[in-house]
From TrEMBL:
<protein>
    <submittedName>
        <fullName>LysR family transcriptional regulator</fullName>
    </submittedName>
</protein>
<dbReference type="Pfam" id="PF03466">
    <property type="entry name" value="LysR_substrate"/>
</dbReference>
<dbReference type="InterPro" id="IPR000847">
    <property type="entry name" value="LysR_HTH_N"/>
</dbReference>
<dbReference type="InterPro" id="IPR036388">
    <property type="entry name" value="WH-like_DNA-bd_sf"/>
</dbReference>
<keyword id="KW-0805">Transcription regulation</keyword>
<comment type="similarity">
    <text>Belongs to the LysR transcriptional regulatory family.</text>
</comment>
<keyword id="KW-0238">DNA-binding</keyword>
<dbReference type="Pfam" id="PF00126">
    <property type="entry name" value="HTH_1"/>
</dbReference>
<keyword id="KW-0804">Transcription</keyword>
<feature type="domain" description="HTH lysR-type">
    <location>
        <begin position="1"/>
        <end position="58"/>
    </location>
</feature>
<dbReference type="InterPro" id="IPR005119">
    <property type="entry name" value="LysR_subst-bd"/>
</dbReference>
<dbReference type="InterPro" id="IPR036390">
    <property type="entry name" value="WH_DNA-bd_sf"/>
</dbReference>
Length: 295
């Protein structure tokens, strides 16, 4: 297939209107119709159902669109990356982070990034839980650095940057707060306060419903932001999970961070929308890896 044929098919599949497709491609509606008919002869069947009132993809057309669109986007991204490499990197890279220690890493890496690529600027923004992935989907951010897992199959996950020891955050007034460490079975002693609106996969990894021994972990209230969760913990309404490093950044007199013995760590990695792997993003991820190795 030639490039104009691919673009015509994909645009018509999006618009489902010959005139609007022609306007977007700066050609005549007749040219659009001719191109589609040519593709249909090559395929051996109809790709679109046409009537006076509507245009719709046929089952064959839907299958072709599902397979062709990501491949075409990948080709476009490859050419964009090659072009960026030839002219030198430039522009603004918008990076979000979920925890202050991730923000610290971004600031250090951004300084080196600007030194190597003077035409590039890094903007960094604190975002938490659901808002982080909403910002990626809405093209408000180009990349996130946060705890795994990601929030869906549409996100690409980069290399692991670092891992932190897992902790249970408990009310300072609870008797368990006197312990130096806890086991995963101890998680069932208090209701677990969770972030609102996150994916089930995220909850399963960081806010489990059962201990490894099978004990049920009851659910406490939900909250949208991290400081809200800590306030609920401090008020004695339950416990929550975090990385042990959070104690140095979010210490409060009414909560205690207890490290787990033998629990999996909390892993942090960069994430972005698939198809959004610009040359600037790839270069910044490389620098993040350099700095995280010496962290």
């Amino acid at each position: 297939m030639e490039r104009h044929e691919i673009e015509t098919f994909l645009t018509l599949a999006e618009e489902l209107h010959f005139t609007r497709t022609a306007e977007r491609l700066l050609v005549s509606p007749g040219r659009v119709s001719q191109t589609i008919k040519k593709l249909e002869r090559r395929v051996g069947g109809a790709l679109f159902e046409r009537s006076n009132r509507r245009v719709a993809l046929t089952p064959v057309g839907r299958e072709l669109h599902a397979e062709l669109r990501p491949a075409y986007q990948q080709v476009q991204q490859a050419f964009a990356n090659a072009s960026a490499a030839c002219r030198g990197l430039g522009g603004v890279l918008r990076v979000g982070f979920s925890a202050p220690w991730c923000g610290d890493l971004i600031v250090r890496a951004a300084e080196e990034f600007r030194a190597r690529h003077p035409r590039c600027t890094v903007e960094f923004h604190e975002v938490t839980f659901t808002a982080a992935f909403t910002a990626l989907r809405a093209d408000v951010l180009d990349m996130l650095i946060k705890e795994l897992p990601s929030d869906g199959a549409e996100f690409a996950v980069g290399p692991l940057l670092f891992s932190e020891r897992r902790a249970l955050v408990v009310p300072a007034s609870h008797h368990i707060a006197a312990q130096e460490t806890i086991s995963q079975e101890d998680t069932a002693l208090l209701p677990l306060i969770t972030p609102a609106g996150v994916s089930q996969e995220f909850l399963d990894v960081l806010y489990p419903q059962r201990t490894p021994g099978g004990r049920i972990i009851s659910r406490g209230p939900e909250a949208v932001a991290w400081q809200e969760i800590l306030s609920l913990v401090g008020a004695g309404q339950g416990a929550t999970t975090a990385s042990m490093r959070a104690a140095a950044y979010h210490g409060r007199p009414d909560v205690v961070y207890l490290p787990y013995d033998g629990a999996p760590p909390v892993d942090y990695a960069p994430m972005w929308l698939k198809g959004g792997e610009s040359a600037e993003l790839q270069a910044f991820v490389g620098i993040l890896l350099e700095f995280s190795a010496t962290r």
